[in-house]
Specification:
With 137 residues, this protein is α/β, with parallel strands linked by helices. The protein has one domain: Response regulator (Rossmann fold, 3-Layer(aba) Sandwich). It is built from five helices and five strands, in the order βαβαβαβαβα. A five-stranded parallel sheet has the order 2-1-3-4-5, with helices on both faces. The chain is globular, with a radius of gyration of 16 Å. The N and C termini lie far apart (51 Å).
Length: 137
């Protein structure tokens, strides 16, 4: 599988990692890391179309990963989606380089759209709701 379909999920919460991996594994090759230190190691060794990154983690937090990317791989900053419980008001302070920022709890459909768009799949349109065509009683 080519790198353009590979996603790195970085979160210290195993339930979040498993949820995102299961959601994306039908369309993408998914790799995971439990903290920023492990993420940096994987980023050095692999190419990822998208990096889904929590901010609050042990050892090296998400801000540390963003700083590492800024210093060593600035072109990869556009491939990062921050998913955090901090809230969107924290974005300018903690990750001003990041364009994609989702707040936990997140909508899985929104996350999937962000991953596809961030990975170069282009904008994803949400289907318009359809009228219920069931027969009236």
């Amino acid at each position: 599988m080519s790198f353009d379909r590979k996603v790195l999920v970085v979160d210290d919460d195993i339930a979040i990692r498993v949820l995102i991996a299961r959601l994306l594994s039908r369309t993408f090759e998914v790799d995971s890391a439990r903290d920023g230190a492990e993420a940096i190691e994987k980023i050095r060794e692999n190419e990822y179309a998208v990096i889904i990154l929590d901010l609050m983690m042990p050892r090296i937090d998400g801000v540390g990963v963003v700083n590492y990317l800024r210093d060593h791989y600035p072109e990869k900053l556009k491939r990062v989606i921050v998913v955090t419980a901090f809230g969107s008001a924290a974005q300018p302070r903690v990750a001003p380089d990041i364009e994609r920022f989702l707040v936990k709890p997140f909508d899985v459909g929104e996350l999937l759209r962000e991953v596809i768009e961030c990975g170069g799949g282009g904008p994803v349109e949400t289907p318009a709701p359809t009228a219920d065509k069931s027969p009236e009683a």
